Amino acid sequence: MRPAIEDLLATSRVVALPMTTRFRGVTTREALLLEGPEGWAEFSPFVEYDDAEAATWLAAAIDFAWNEQPDAVRPSIRVNATIPAVTAGEVARILARFPGCRTAKVKVADPGQHLSDDVARVRAVREALGPEGRVRIDANAAWTVDEAERALHALAEFDLEYAEQPCATVAELAELRGRVKYMGIPIAADESVRKAEDPIAVARAGAADLIIIKAQPLGGVRRALEIVAEAGLPAVVSSALDTAVGLSQGAALAASLPELDFDCGLGTGALFVEDVADRVPVDGSIPAGRVIPDAARLDRLAASADRREWWLDRLARCHALLPRG
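^ thats the sequence. predicted structure below, dont judge the formating
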């Protein structure tokens, strides 16, 4: 169903959450929260996304707020720590915000940095987690095939769990996977799933060993589950720097997957100075249930009037793009 725009506007709250560390170029994360019959949901496509792409995020929010979700098969979700592209000396401070996490995802290939920066950061994470810890990297599609191959050679000594979206295209991922297969470093696809017209193409091409799925960009929990089933590959559920409300939708997705062999990227609430509700890792896990935003925090974290107007206009535009019925 598509609720009327008046129903969405009636409960909409726009918040601006300050970050503890710059992440993906973001220092303050904005999001629009709204409440439906099933509870609260989040609409927070990044500001640079066009309306056509953002409308899929709105479809996910409506589905989560208006429809009952698939049954959960697990009550809690183990999550990874997320390490932005910081200096090696800052790694310990950030890891301390993820108590009990045995896995860390490390951002690499940040604009303006060098491979030596990535090596130093990943080394610091490996030393902090010890030999039993799990270390994965995420390049956000920034490398060419040659650059990715060179980087994976440099980072292989740290026993990587996998490399997430090292290159931009499915063809590049397939070529890289063939080149580095002997190294035993699995290739994970993220942008090649969530930003693709055909999210199954990466699996069909044999270009990845596993896929990263996110509830908002894929249109909701049910659609994400369908993609996992069609792809036939192991899946890791991750967030798009969501508030606690969006993280609860990601947790609902992770909780309903038939198989979940990897820790999930749903602990990113620890990167906010303050969130609209408590959804940070405890003993390396988060619960699978919904959250209700704290009224006082919604007021305290409210975005400025002009930013609220910007988000409400965007909501209306994206709503007009959704199928009727």
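The chain has a mean pLDDT of 97.
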